[in-house]
Amino acid sequence: MTIATILIEDSPTIRSELIPALAEFADVEIIATAETADQGIAALKAHADEWRLAVVDMLLKAGNGLQVLRAGRERRSDQYMIVLTNYATPDIRRKSGECGADAVFDKSSEIEQFLELCRQYSTGQTPQAANAPDAPRPGEGDEGSLDREELIGVEELLERVSIDRVLTEAVSGLVEKNAAAVRDHLQRHGPASKMPAANEPESDQKDGASGSTPENVPDGE
């Protein structure tokens, strides 16, 4: 059975790779995508009666995945939220679970487990068989209330990571822009003209330095 899914991921490259993989291996149909926390929350609300799975990146173009998870805590028991992130640290895993994630997976090393869990959701199998990292359902366990100070600490970390990523992308873009300008200049004008070497006489004749007789000067003078 196809499972209606909202994909909250800010990378177009990852979306383009993930969507066909989910369709092929897990019978997942993407009904909406989002790049920011606000867009993700809006998508959850707009498709509240339709979606059964939400795949949430932790570091988004604006906001973060914890905000999306908290917004979906009041969902039905047959609706699931999975975090798929490059920042699957122990703190992120723990806080994601406390905010309502059903599982947390690392993009670089746990894609197979992620796809297996999605497949089991779509077929109605018991999700524990997917060996997903522990993440209690909303309201389960002894940690129903969040430690606000710890949560803020994690979100500050995510904000710093986001700023670092933006700066890295900006610097990379600037370097590429400068490199492109240099390539364009060379294509249009060719290499810079050869400059005279040190102590090399210049071609212009100045003050008779070449030894030739200046014009309009009578012989013998």
Automatic annotation (TrEMBL):
Domain (Response regulatory) ranges: 4-122
Residues annotated with 4-aspartylphosphate modification: D57
Any one GO MF annotation of this record: DNA binding
SMART domains: REC
InterPro entries hit by this protein: CheY-like_superfamily (IPR011006), Sig_transdc_resp-reg_receiver (IPR001789)
Pfam families: Response_reg (PF00072)
Keyword DNA-binding belongs to the record: yes
Protein name (database record): DNA-binding NarL/FixJ family response regulator
Region (Disordered) location: 125-147, 182-221
Entry keywords, A to Z: DNA-binding, Phosphoprotein
Biased composition (Basic and acidic residues): 137-147
KW DNA-binding (keyword) present: yes
Superkingdom field: Bacteria
